[in-house]
């Protein structure tokens, strides 16, 4: 007997070669999102949907608690005011705005919500204990520290200060029993600082991701005063996110007495009594300045530094969890490492000559207006305009004159950031920007530069009377 192979002329003998084995039909498995798989396993491990209903009910109650608190709305208002100030500075420096306040604000709020959801989910497995009094402490300290520097509103500083107070209470426990003072210190005394360190580390990992993805788009071109007194160009990277957190915390009163189907990393026996959700709105903030790098490069470097800091803080959280006597050292390290990160960035900037200045090759492009002819022509920040319509240009007036005399067409010879020459050309139309939408690096005629102040981080712009005017000569600010 012979078996014919379907679709071909080859045959097989029943006594000789066997036909190729037929593979069984494979079942297709529908892959669901990992979050729902984990949630389903948790509920299955609990034996019923009771735990799922309790989670949903308490999470909804915490959302209502969050909506009733003023702190989250204060954070949103702070973001609106900061971006409004940024647009005022843009108009002051460039006579136009480069960002939309509402568009930037709603994206910031949306990213903050995403960060809150991600951090809340992870912290449910790490464990957190945050009494309501500790929330008041965090916001009060953040507001107080922001009076010195806006970037001090970052959670790392307020949690670091709380850790120092916690260490003092561990050394002198009688302070928590004093009349009048004890009730104010009780929330700090009851708060496991290791879980707060873990929260700081986790949020800075998210912040590093946001800076990596959004830093270049949010960067604002600025004029500042260089070491020799002349104006130079740069980019200010300043971002803030209001983050609403729903933290799973051990039961104090009115929570769920049923045990969790998993054991959080921090807290130990505190979870045996039950659990509930607590709303904790916080602010994440990032501020940096570059005069030596492109915004995208600076954002990547800053994100890498933030990620390293976050991992270090997570290590400090684990150390404090194991050895409580390290609370003071680790608390100071949370603050000190954050400051060291900022100082390291400043040192690297100071060690390199400024990039956004004009030179003998031509005019340095600081930025390009969105939707402008320059953007359509492919001009990029950091590039140098060497010639316009065949005419070498070394000043803004020369560029304007070369563009004006040619009528309805322009051709630019540009040196890119790699040192190669490229050509860009385009027809010109009535009503378009007189410099094609190019924002050039400042020259000796720059009217405004940003001024460093002790209270705010580059929060004011002073009027520039001359190319070598000192800070005291900048009379008017915005």
Automatic annotation (TrEMBL):
The keyword Ribosomal protein does not apply. Residues 1-10 have a biased composition (Gly residues). Gene3D superfamilies: 2.30.42.10. The keyword Membrane applies. The chain crosses the membrane at residues 59-83, 104-126, 132-148, 155-175, 195-212, 232-251, 271-291, 303-320. Keywords: Membrane, Transmembrane, Transmembrane helix. Residues 1-20 are annotated as: Disordered. Residues 360-418 form the PDZ domain. This is PDZ domain-containing protein. It comes from Paenibacillus ginsengarvi.
